Amino acid sequence: MASILVIEDNPTNMELMVYLLKAFGHAPLEAEDGETGLAIAHWESLDLILCDLQMPGLDGFEVARQLKSDPTLPKIPLVAITAYAMMGDRDKVLAAGFDGYLTKPIEPELFVGQVEIFLPPEKRSTKSNNAGK
Ligand code: MN
């Protein structure tokens, strides 16, 4: 079980990600914009942060820069959720401080397994471990 912050402005995507994470026994926290996400990152103990790139206000790149440059925050894996499909974005995403990225649309059968790659083994769900073997 992992505590996972999801920063995503699209309600449909948010609902799907939260549903899938809960179905695998994780504890998702929701932030519908970057400002809220940064605040939650400061007061909650988290195992992972998933962050949309395209959001009004602070976009995902700015959220990543602020999270990774804040010495008061523990080092939490940060994964971009991106609709971008262009090759050049990979470098831009990693340069902004993300540890990796997942592409939208979210594939329900694969999503949690893709997310758990970024979690330590003891935080992964048994379900997805079994499904992957
Ligand atoms: Mn968005």
Task: Please give the number of β-strands.
Answer: 5
**Number of DSSP helices?**
6
| Euclidean distance between termini CA atoms | 19 Å
Which descriptor suits the 3D outline? globular
Q: Could you state the oligomeric state of the chains shown?
A: single chain
Q: What low-confidence regions span 5 or more consecutive residues with pLDDT below 50? A: none
Provide the structure class. Answer: alpha/beta
Order of helices and strands: EHEHEHEHEHH
Q: State Rg.
A: 14 Å
Biggest sheet: strand arrangement: 2-1-3-4-5
Q: How much β-strand is present in the residues?
A: 15-25%
Main beta sheet? 5 strands, parallel
The helix content, as a percent range, equals 25-40%
pLDDT averaged over residues? 91
Bound molecules: manganese (II) ion
